[in-house]
Write a structure and sequence with these properties.
9 strands; 32% strand
Amino acid sequence: MQNSFSNIRHNYSRDSLRIENLDRLPLVQLQDWLNDAIRAQHTELTAMSLATVDATGQPTQRIVLLKDISDGGISFFTNYLSSKGQHLEINPKAAAEFFWPSLERQVRLEGIVKKLPAHQSDLYFSSRPRESQIGAWASPQSEIVRDSEFLIHQYQEFEQKFEGKDVPRPPHWGGYILIPHKVEFWQGRPNRMHDRFVYRLNEKGKWDINQLAP
C-alpha cells in the first residue's frame, strides 16, 4: 500500500508578525504567545520537542512539558538517569521547539542546560499528583524492561512503601533550565512567505533581533 504525502499542504493566513510588535526580551515574547495559546484553548500548549545529543553526536528528540518561564530560561522536569539526562550530563546543550498549529506559530530555542537547585525540584515534586510521584520512583526511565507487568509490580511496591506517608522526591529526579542564547519566532504566512524573527544574545548580553527569510 502506497501513501502519497506530497499533496498535503496548508496555506497559512491567520496572522502576521512585525518587528515593532515584538517584545525586546524573547522570553517575554514567548510568555505572550503562550498566553495567546491559553486563550485559544490549544491542546497541550506547554508541550515542546526537546533535542539533545549523545556521546557519539547522535541527536535525539522527545516531547517534554514546559513547567516554568523565568528571567533565566525555560524549565522542565525528568529522570536524571533517562537518556536525555545522560545526554545532558555529557553535553549540556539542547534545543527546544513549541508548535501551535491552530495559531500557525512555532518557537525555537537553543542554549545550555543546567540542573535546577534541589529546593526548586522539591517544590515542584511536592505539587505533583501522588500517583505521578510514585511513578517517578517506579519507572526506570529509558531502560529496557521485561514487560508491562514488571512496571505494574514496581508501582505497587512503591505504593505500599509510601502508604500513609508523604512521597519524597527521588534523588535521580528533578528539574533542568534551558538558558537560551538564540530564540526564533515563526508565524505562518500565505504562499510560504512566513514571518521569521530571530533573537541572538550579543557580547554585551543584549538581544539583537533580525528578520530571516522564510
